[in-house]
Amino acid sequence: MSTTTSASVLFSGGTIISFEEETESLKVVRDGALLVTGDRIAGIYDTAQPSDLPAGTEIVDCTHKIISPGFIDTHRHGWQTALKTLGANSSMPDYMARYAGAFPPTIYTAEDVYIGQLAGLLEALNAGVTTMLDHAHHAWSVDHTEAGLRASVESGARVYWSPAFIGMKDYPISEQIATFKRLAKEQSTSDSPTVLGAAYDGWNFLPREDTEAVIALTKEMNIPVLTTHYLGGPWSADNSPEVLHPHGILDTSTAVVFSHAMGITPQGANLLRSTNQFISITPESEMQYGLSHPNSHQIQDQASLGVDTFITFSTDLLTQARIWLQRTRSRLYDQVLEKWLIPTNNPMSVNQAFLLATRQGGLALRRPDIGVIRVGAKADLVVFDGRSPGMLGWIDPVAAVIMHANVGDIEHVMVDGKFRKRDRKLTVENYGAVVDRFLASADKIRKAALERPDPLFEGRFWGGCEYGRAHEVNASRGSGTGYGEQFLR
Q1: How confident is the model at residue 274 (pLDDT cuts 50, 70, 90)?
Q2: 6 three-state secondary structure
Q3: Using N-to-C axis directions, what is the helix angle for 142-155 and 173-187, rounded to 10°?
Q4: In 85-172, which ranges are continuous DSSP H helix?
Q5: Phi and psi for 163 in degrees, rounded to 5?
Q6: Angle of helix 110-126 versus helix 431-451 axis, rounded to 10
Q7: What pLDDT is attached to residue 4?
Q8: CA dist., res. 371 & res. 363, Å (int)
Q9: How far is residue 433 CA from its own chain's centroid?
Q10: Side-chain half-sphere of 42: how many Cα atoms within 13 Å?
Q11: pLDDT range class, residue 3, cuts 50, 70, 90
Q12: How far is CA 296 from the centre of its chain?
């Protein structure tokens, strides 16, 4: 991987979206400069050409550009890349039956996990996502587990790679824990920004001894982050703060991230605030699959943003922040309109959406040194072309990024002081070979997925609520509705 970077780099002449710790607010520096030395931000200047720079400093011209902190995704499944577009019209039960659960272990080799994970993380880097909390529910064997970690390290992204402890007949949790300990020890001496976290969803359905073993491992190894899917409500999967708190896991130094949290209650919200733990809102996912998020807007002080299954929708945090901003605005506007009143204020700002996609992700991981631009923070940066057709005419850089930017506007991406995208191209060596290797794997997996019979939905979802059907809309003046079939063959 070619990431040759000078010991010091000066991003000169740009508009910088920095962060002030004292006021806990964003601050814009116009026509300034940002100095990176090693893996840290060493200086922020209100002039494009500061003096007394370190010898050999490389100058990157950022005139007319916007310099942003890297975006932080607190819920992703990186290995699934080969399934892209197959589930564009899927519901949650359909997704679980076709592309999750028991199917993937029957077709995915370790090579498939490796190349899918690598391609997926490079896709995220290209989109300016510099940090990912990867819920790696592909740990079906030692080989599959090692493959996911190896791809994460080789991507160059800052990955909290969190293998899921799963109840596997031929690979019990006791063996999974032994593998985790070995990999964690090996990774502890690496200079990679990838670190090991853990994922566990078995709080309510796996044997108690498995849950106790995962808790003991988390405390023994001081695992930096533990993540769990929390749905609740009609979806079951009640891995809520109320369920985890009696296990003594919320009051430790480990960050606990509750993905989705559609069923969050006032009691759960209070627990999050008192223990300083966070949820990960995945707006597009929760709307795609019908999970909903009825109360997430009420706990945004303990919330971050995630992507989830990017095989089905957008991979970037720009889109997630924009969707969540407008979803929240619409919900709160409706509360006023239902009273036949006209709202005079906008209930959520672009600054708040930006913070959810950056700093709040860092706080969710208990890393106040990522997701912000300030002296001493990690050099995880994204540079936008302020003269692209879609951004031309901006004056507010935060609004420009949140409301108008797209992935094509991203010129440079830096992680840990190293360029991972430069001049709109990924810096990975021989990306074409990665693409070819991935497509060969994806072709095999796609064929296997399409050969499976359509699932039948009878009884209850996960033993909870019965199945129902949503009303399908009509988008055609003709005899049909326009819904049609997917073009998969």
Answers
A1: very high
A2: coil
A3: 30
A4: 92-99, 104-107, 110-126, 142-155
A5: -65, 135
A6: 120
A7: 60
A8: 9
A9: 26
A10: 16
A11: low
A12: 17
Q: Could you please report the per-residue DSSP string of 348-416?
A: S-HHHHHHHHTHHHHHHTT-TTSSS-STTSB--EEEEETTSTTTTT-S-HHHIIIII--GGGEEEEEET
Instruction: Provide the token pair at 480.
Output: 């049909």
Looking at residue 101, what is its pLDDT? 83
The answer, yes or no, to whether residue 164 has pLDDT greater than 50, is yes
| Cβ atoms 339, 348 nearer than 8 A | no
Return the structure tokens found at 487: 């073009």
Cα 149 → chain centroid: 17
Confidence of residue 2 (pLDDT cuts 50, 70, 90): very low
Q: Is 19 helix (H, G, I), strand (E, B) or coil?
A: strand
Which helix (DSSP H) or strand (DSSP E) does residue 60 occupy? strand 58-61
User: Of 194, 193, 260, 195, which is closest to residue 224 (Cα–Cα)?
Assistant: 195
Place of tokens 């809520």: 240
Dihedral-angle region of residue 221 (phi above 0 means left; psi in -120 to 50 means alpha; beta otherwise): alpha
Cα gap 55→36, rounded to integer Å: 13
Task: Catalogue the E-assigned strands of 207-282.
Answer: 225-230, 255-260, 278-281
Task: Say if CB 256 and CB 239 are below 8 A apart.
Answer: no
What are the angstrom distances between the C-alpha of 416 and each of 70, 217, 275? 10, 28, 29
Split at pLDDT 50, 70, 90, the class of 192 is: very high
Say which residue the tokens 């073009």 belong to: 487
Give the number of other CB atoms < 10 A from CB of residue 293. Answer: 23
Which two tokens mark 447? 């064929």
List all residues 6 or more positions away from 269 whose beta carbon is below 8 Å from its beta carbon: 295, 298, 299, 302
What DSSP state is assigned to residue 455? P
Residue pair 286/343 in contact (Cβ under 8 Å)? The answer is no
Question: What's the sign of the alpha-carbon dihedral 445, 450, 451, 454?
Answer: positive
Cα–Cα–Cα angle for 363, 369, 375, rounded to 5 degrees? 140
With a threshold of 0.85, does the pTM exceed it? yes
The DSSP output letter for 338 is T
**Rounded CA gap, 445 and 114, in Å?**
13
* Amino acid making up residue 55: A
Minimum mean pLDDT range among 30-39, 353-362, 372-381, 446-455: 446-455
Cβ neighbors of 91 (< 8 A, separation 6 or more) are 289, 290, 470
What is the gyration radius of the CA atoms in the chain, in angstroms? 22
